[in-house]
Amino acid sequence: FDRKKVMVIGDILRALLFISIPIVGNYFWLYTATVLIECVTLFWSPAKDATMPNLIPKNKLESANQMTLLASYGSAPFAAITFTLLTLFITGISAAFNLGSNSAVDLALFINALSFLFSAWTIGQMDIPKEHLNKGDLSSSIFASLLDGGKFLSSSKVIRGLIFGLLGAFIAAGAVIGLARTFVGDLAGGDAAYGILFGAVFTGLAIGIALGPKIFSQFSRRRLFGAALCVAGFLLVVLSLLQNLVLALLVVVLLGMFSGVSWVTGFTMLGMEVSDELRGRVFAFAQSLVRISLVGVLAISPLIAAAIGEHDFKFGEVELTYNGAAFTMLGGGIIAMIVGAASYQQMKDRPGVSFWSDVLNALRGELGG
């Protein structure tokens, strides 16, 4: 497939779908359009991720991935502020001109559509190398391409460990996303506290993406990915046990930071370890697997939390109450730690050297990247 055409057409289709939501104006089409937008994204994202290594030297790829992920996730707090200001502005305009109550949401959707059209125009102006086009690419079906990506994953020990780690990370992330509002409510917080928690995790994510690889430069990417995932899992376990909202916010920032380190390191490795002719297929397979797992966990985690229910624990004079959300997040953290440790063992490039030896050597400045 011509990756440039895939990205341009994908952006145009997503823009049209966003425009259609306020025009059609019913819940059925809102859900349908959302599903279709995600389907288009499953084509657009692998094409973008597979194209980047062709445009950027290998030694600059990590920095490029940092910028991409910062633009995607670091902008979330600014988006929240923008939407709040937009809502206030539109509320005043609506009151003055007797407009509908959904005007702010509709305007946000139209602005979003314009951003996709601008993206399509920008990509259309770029000079993207076409070396990746060959007969095999053009004749292969979508299913066959995904199958090729899956076969490559099973044949490469490093990539297998990488995808296994990303999968575990998203399972843990899905548990947090699906239960965050319930967890905040259990700590006697409301919508405002949930908004602060949301901003805190994305702030940490942005810090981890921007500064993590530089701070932990003593570790190679292979060691850093699994180690960061282990730490993120441990912090999720700590978060699930906390009974104080302020402490939870501090832990969430650290959790987001190590998640960001793991995320940017993982995607940089995926771009560098796979040859160009297979890169698009591997990214497509990996992202499909990750998204399916994330959606599954988002659907299942609230049911698990509800089934577990509330439990009281007495430690002497102290009595603690934990709800299903905390237990489910605890399980997600343990899974992330196990997956991180397994990925570290499978991908580490210093056989026979323990993780803690790496940490001590890094602190002394004796460990090369």
Key descriptive features of the protein:
369 residues, mainly alpha, Growth Hormone, Chain: A, 2 domains, two-stranded antiparallel sheet, 14 helices, 82% helix, 3% strand
Question: What this model shows, in words?
Answer:
Helix content is 82%, strand content 3%. With 369 residues, the chain is mainly α. It folds into two domains: 1-128; 143-363, Up-down Bundle (Growth Hormone, Chain: A), CATH 1.20.1250. Strand 1 (311-315) and strand 2 form a beta hairpin. Helix 9 crosses helix 11 and helix 12 packs antiparallel against helix 13.
Please give the domain count: 2
Largest beta-sheet characterization: 2 strands, antiparallel
Mean pLDDT: 77
Query: Strand-and-helix sequence, N→C?
Result: HHHHHHHHHHHHEEHH
- Count of runs of 4 or more consecutive helical residues: 14
CATH class of the largest domain: Mainly Alpha
Instruction: Count the beta strands.
Output: 2
Beta-strand share of residues: under 5%
Looking at CATH, the homologous superfamily of the largest domain is MFS general substrate transporter like domains
Within the CATH hierarchy, at the fold level, what is the topology of the largest domain?
Growth Hormone, Chain: A
Secondary structure class reads mainly alpha
CATH architectural name of the largest domain: Up-down Bundle
Low-pLDDT residue spans:
132-139
Radius of gyration: 22 Å
The outline comes out as: globular
